[in-house]
Amino acid sequence: MRVVTWNVNSLRVRFEHLARWLADHPADVIALQELKLPDPEFPREPIAALGLESVHFGQRTYNGVALLARQPLADVQRGIPGWDDPERRVLAATAGDLRIVDVYVPNGQVVGSEKFAYKLEWLGRLRDYLAGEIARHPRLVVLGDFNIAPADCDVHDPARWEGSVHVSPAERQALGAITALGFADVFRRFPQPLDAWSWWDYRMNSFRRNHGLRIDLILATTALAERCTACRIDRLPRGWERPSDHAPVIADFAD
DNA sequence: ATGGTGGGCAGCCCA
Question: Which residues does nucleic strand B approach, with CB less than 7 A?
Answer without folding.
Answer: A 9-10, 12-13, 36-37, 60-62, 106-107, 109, 115, 147, 202-204, 242
